[in-house]
Amino acid sequence: MTTRKKKKKRAQLCFRSPLQRGQTLTFSLHNVTPEEHIIVFKFLTNNHSHSSLMERYFVRPSAGRMIETDQMDIMLFLNQVPEDLAPNEILKDKILVRWAVIQRNTKVEAWMQAQPDSTRRKWLEMLVEQWPDQVIIRETRLKIRFV
Q1: Residue 2 predicted with pLDDT over 50
Q2: Sequence-separated (6 or more) residues with CB below 8 Å from residue 144
Q3: Is the pLDDT of residue 7 over 80?
Q4: Mean of the per-residue pLDDT values for the chain?
Q5: How confident is the model at residue 3 (pLDDT cuts 50, 70, 90)?
Q6: Do the Cβ atoms of 43 and 96 come closer than 8 Å?
Q7: Where are the domains of the chain?
Q8: Phi first, then psi: what are they for 85, rounded to 5°?
Q9: Looking at residue 100, what is its pLDDT?
Q10: What span, in angstroms and rounded, lies between the C-alpha atoms of 104 and 85?
Q11: Beta-strand (E) ranges in the chain?
């Protein structure tokens, strides 16, 4: 008898043809225990086209916290259309979501709530620096495909 290891299905976002600059995908982040936790997140993109240093994608909001909601809509914008994409060609683009779960009614949450929105791109790093033994940063990669 043989057993097959089940492949974990990864999150995937698909831009549909015809591709054009400014095309948008909307997806959601979910907090499954909003009564008990808040979520702090940050998106990272590193997908530059080969011909320029222009970012291929923008994410809005690119960082934030989920405090009073169990769901937040995120928009992924296609800033630069891939050139000469063959019909069956697959680009291996990804975006990375870095995130942390913070227990409600703690000193960590109080500190997080006091941070100004203008510093949101640095919140995860600030959390780890301020509370190194209480915060764990997790990462989730999202595949991007063009169909």
Answers
A1: no
A2: 12, 13, 14, 15, 47, 57, 76, 91, 93, 94, 95
A3: no
A4: 88
A5: very low
A6: yes
A7: 12-146
A8: -80, 115
A9: 97
A10: 47
A11: 12-15, 24-30, 37-45, 57-60, 63-66, 71-78, 93-103, 138-146
Is residue 21 classed exposed, middle or buried when 0-12, 13-18 and 19+ CB atoms within 10 A define those classes? exposed
Let me know: does 68 contact 39? Beta carbons within 8 Å: no
**Confidence class of residue 50 from pLDDT cuts 50, 70 and 90?**
low
> What's the topology of domain 12-146?
Immunoglobulin-like (2.60.40)
Q: How many CB atoms lie within 10 A of CB 130?
A: 14
How many whole angstroms separate alpha carbon 65 and alpha carbon 145? 27
> What residue has token string 């780890």?
128
Q: Record the tokens describing residue 45, joined without a space.
A: 């993109």
Residues 6 or more apart whose CB falls under 8 angstroms from that of 18 comprise none
Q: pLDDT per residue over 78-134, tens digit each? A: 999 888 777 777 788 899 999 999 999 999 999 999 999 999 999 999 999 999 999
Name beta bridge partners: 139.
98
Residue 2 Cα distances to 8, 57, 125, angstroms: 19, 43, 45
